[in-house]
Amino acid sequence: MTGSLSRRAVLGGMAGGAALLAAGAGSAAAAGPVRESYVPLTVGGGGGPVGTDRVHVLKVGPDTARTVLVMVPGMFGAANDFRWAARDLVAAVPGVQVWAFDRREENLADRSGFRTADPAAYYLDGHYRSQDPAASAFAAGWGLTRTLEDLRAVVRAAARGGRRVVLGGHSWGATTAMAYAAWDFDGCPGYRDVAALVLVDGGVRGAFDGTGEPVANSPEQVKERLAAIEGGAVFDMTLSAVGLGDRAESTQIWYQLAGWYAHRDPDGPSVLQPRMPDALRPPVPVTNAALLGTLVDAGIGWPNDISVHSGHLADSGEPRGWVDAGITPIGRVAAAYAGGPEPAVWEWYWPARLSVDLDVTDFYAETDTARSLSLRLRHAAGLDVPLYAFQTSYAKGTIVSAAREVVADSRIPYARYETDNGMNHLDPLFAAPQHNTFTRTLAPFLTGLLT
Q1: Is the pTM of this model over 0.70?
Q2: pLDDT tens, 361-374?
Q3: Which domains are delineated in the chain?
């Protein structure tokens, strides 16, 4: 339906949340309600509008837990990415609480329309408040340094009372976690703050090489990209390639709308189908659930990094419904995309500077380019905490091979490597518990840390 997108098209957020708002299946449901809260944390000044000097954390599990798994979402992803997986992990590993990190950029999004009866009218007819790039010069400074300082406030909050902190992330969130571990915080290596690292389909040292999309981190490329940011291109526009609009937030709004209607009226005629661009509009009338399926399912033709294995359109019916035939039921995706509206699964305004910094971080060393960007990646060789790495079919094996290289060049005492080539990049966030190799293999790794 679209041409192949760069890995930066999503790196973790396109399918966003873990659909845990869906009632029903899974070990967490069997165990009963799980304590959850979505709380703000004040962080250092970033020069943005009033209300942006804070981050949020989705907490899942008991506050009495002695181990906290802090998870960082990937590009365009937000805290709700991890809710379903968090519920499953908390049920499987007593003594663990999961914190999902929302970056400060989340404060820029106007999600008030999802509290109305007709959010499509609010967003597609232009009534919402959009963040104007021309008025957002502050975002040029929201790079990896800013993100890691904010993340450290979260890690320190999680560690209060002597609690153990495990740090991880999905896709570019995994890259962020690795950067934190190697970072120099005023002489203190980041890895000293954590007890272990969890990498989910991401990382450093060529982790994404197998995708066939080269990292744009040569000195010439970095110089060109920084010049564009200085010229006003402060938000990453990669998602405009999907074909759902030309604003930084357009695609995210469309996907959340699709989830909202699919969650509330899955079998009703699609509200969005008549308003979709011609190139993406299904050729036959479909239900709300089926419309969402055409936007997320691998069988429709989406690239690996923005798709899941869900099912297919029904062979008959007016309108056509959706048939779950894969590891990731469309209802789970719908519940996650629908949001609350907060916490959400989407980051609307991803800073272009953060994209540059994370590409440069791929070297995982304080290179000349890294120093020029003030990226303090000084402690990679000193890493001395256990590591878990999980890969799907997305990068064709380079997630684990890169993790092995990091382990070989550090003091990491042991590592666990897991692969499920039957999954696409986003399936670990959505898959039904019985099909989710990620949560099933991470649980014993976490249990081992508790003993």
Answers
A1: yes
A2: 999 999 999 999 99
A3: 7-450 (3.40.50.1820)
